[in-house]
Amino acid sequence: MTQPEVWLRGPVAHVPALLQPAAHALLQAVEDVDRVAARISHEDLWRRPGSAASLGFHLKHLSGATERLTSYAAGRVLSPAEREWLAVESMEGAPEGDAAALALRFWTAVQGVINEMAAYPEARLTEARAIGRAQLPTTAIGCFFHAGEHAARHAGQLITTAKLLGVAP
After folding, report:
1. What's the half-sphere exposure (Cβ side, CA atoms, 13 Å) at 109?
2. Is the CATH number 2.120.10.30 carried by domain 51-169?
3. For position 2, what pLDDT does the model report?
4. pLDDT the model gives residue 143
């Protein structure tokens, strides 16, 4: 028997109650991505059916956006490594790597944001945060929530594109 979706498996250890939905969405996205990434060849990684974004783009963007949103939630500016990843996120084939390596990077980013959630004081979740160069307004909880829903959106796009390419389970 298969396991129920992540949100039906109980709370994520040490994550505050208000952040559980975001943690569940992130962990579900990891499982969805892993299920597809294992079947993606290097050739399929960069194909763009009907001009859609490639599987490689979604895999790179999943980790990069999650890392950036984690920094914003904590009130940090983007690191040089985060800015460098953003610059190559939409570049086909850069950096070199296969789907499994890109999926692992996403898993590492999710572990980082969940660790950040676990350490984040609930009383500070409504603190103001600013996003990007334009310093668009949000809150810490807004960053955490968006990390979860954004990951779910791109995992869904990854699955749909993989189905169009005939590589999804």
Report:
1. 29
2. no
3. 86
4. 98
